[in-house]
């Protein structure tokens, strides 16, 4: 079946010896119209940065300085179509909502270098804390004009060259601007412009497509949501605090599931069904999520009556009537949920848990999605559960075709959060998945034991 990559962390470079060589504010290549861009109720609660790093090996035809110039030019051009990425997030004092002021202020572009080679970094899959240095967080240390420091840009790009000739492209974007699917399209378009080609897909920037109904109609209960005490937009820090990294000491570990292990989990779920048509919901995502759910919930304690609520994101583009365009820019995802008592998670058939995960996504119909959006209009809140599974598994960031080739690996810069578990692809096999877990030591030991035991490869 393969082996689980759950050993102690490999030796990792803790200091990448990054030096900033140059920085500038990149403006749209053409003048854009000044406007205010509506943010949907889904976007409203996602005012925090998402950081990704994309690793590229040496390409003699594209040394890092050539890559930097091509990306700088491509960024200026893409800011014409994605004009909001050159804007700034503002709170509207009249409505108490966040909006994007599409003012053409620009995106930050940074060129940096490292005294390390990519090989010296260590295992790219492992969440190396030093990866945070591959994307600048603050403009304070950059040689930019003073007026550039007043507002936080919505997009920062950093190209870092390594001694071996390889390089990284680090991007920081505000989550209010993109979900994972629309960010992938953004990367495809950026790569196309860097290749002097037309856009791969024209983005649909109309956030009114996910505006609340007037008047709002909440037609479902939404136990996956919790109300905010502070109105959205009145305090820009109120939303950020929801997603702050915890100061609690956490261990973090990667649990690898190979394609053979995932196939084993599928077979395990199908056994109880006798090969009936109901097995159609036994997908890779559903079995991995059910397995992780069991391990995480049972690692928290021994109360069999405690109810565990799992959250995970579901793309609503194809679920609406009419469907949203596939090119819709913005957050078109809602949190599906499923619940079970710990007794059921421990003793119940695995197939039942897989079915519960499937039913959580099935619940999100057009009317349910509209009701959830309207709930946000009425109550001002955000998703809430015991923990969230955030899947980067099938987004395809490492399949983007840049002029210098595809990334060797693409990954998020990891959040220090015990209530978020990340799924992301294996470096060599998209059919395998890496499960990143952060937990206090005692809970991590329990999770580790359960992960082995409940996988049951001898089955």
Automatic annotation (TrEMBL):
GO molecular function: acyltransferase activity, transferring groups other than amino-acyl groups
UniProt-listed InterPro entries: CAT-like_dom_sf (IPR023213), Plant_Fungal_Acyltransferase (IPR050317)
Family of the protein in this entry: Belongs to the plant acyltransferase family.
Protein name, as recorded: Omega-hydroxypalmitate O-feruloyl transferase
Lineage of origin: Eukaryota, Viridiplantae, Streptophyta, Embryophyta, Tracheophyta
């Amino acid at each position: 079946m393969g082996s689980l990559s759950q050993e102690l962390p490999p030796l990792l470079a803790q200091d990448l010896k990054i030096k900033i060589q140059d920085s500038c504010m990149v403006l749209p290549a053409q003048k854009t119209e000044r406007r205010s861009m509506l943010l949907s109720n889904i976007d409203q609660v996602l005012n925090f940065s998402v950081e990704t790093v994309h690793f590229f090996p040496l390409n003699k035809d594209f040394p890092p300085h050539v890559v930097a110039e091509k990306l700088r030019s491509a960024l200026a051009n893409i800011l014409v179509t994605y004009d909001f990425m050159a804007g700034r997030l503002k709170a509207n004092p009249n409505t108490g909502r966040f909006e994007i002021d599409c003012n053409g202020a620009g995106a930050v572009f940074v060129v940096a270098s490292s005294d390390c080679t990519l090989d010296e970094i260590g295992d790219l899959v492992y969440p190396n804390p030093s990866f945070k240095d591959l994307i600048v967080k603050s403009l304070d240390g950059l040689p930019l004009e003073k007026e550039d420091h007043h507002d936080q840009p919505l997009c920062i790009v950093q190209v870092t060259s390594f001694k071996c000739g390889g390089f990284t492209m680090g991007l920081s974007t505000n989550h209010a601007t993109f979900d994972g699917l629309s960010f992938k399209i953004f990367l495809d378009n950026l790569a196309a412009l860097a290749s002097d080609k037309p856009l791969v897909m024209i983005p649909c920037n109309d956030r009114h497509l996910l505006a609340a109904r007037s008047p709002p109609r909440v037609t479902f209960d939404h136990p996956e949501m919790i109300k905010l005490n502070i109105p959205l937009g009145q305090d820009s820090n109120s939303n950020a605090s929801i997603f702050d990294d915890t100061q609690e000491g956490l261990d973090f570990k990667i649990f690898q599931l190979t394609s053979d292990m995932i196939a084993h989990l599928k077979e395990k779920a199908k056994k109880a069904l006798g090969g009936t048509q109901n097995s159609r919901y036994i997908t890779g995502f559903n079995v991995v999520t059910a397995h992780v759910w069991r391990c995480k919930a049972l690692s928290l304690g021994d109360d069999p009556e405690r109810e565990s609520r799992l959250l995970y994101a579901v793309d609503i583009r194809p679920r609406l009537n009419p469907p949203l365009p596939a090119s819709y820019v913005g957050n078109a995802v809602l949190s599906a949920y499923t619940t079970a008592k710990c007794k059921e998670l421990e003793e119940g058939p695995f197939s039942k848990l897989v079915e519960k995960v499937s039913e959580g996504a099935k619940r999100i119909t057009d009317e349910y999605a509209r009701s959830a959006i309207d709930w946000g209009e009425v109550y001002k809140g955000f998703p809430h559960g015991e923990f969230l599974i955030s899947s980067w598994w099938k987004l395809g960031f490492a399949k983007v075709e840049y002029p210098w080739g595809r990334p060797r690996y693409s990954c998020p810069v990891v959040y220090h959060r015990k209530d978020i578990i990340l799924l992301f692809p294996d470096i060599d096999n998209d059919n395998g998945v890496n499960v990143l877990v952060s937990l206090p030591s005692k809970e991590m030991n329990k999770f580790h034991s359960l992960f082995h035991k409940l996988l049951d490869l001898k089955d």
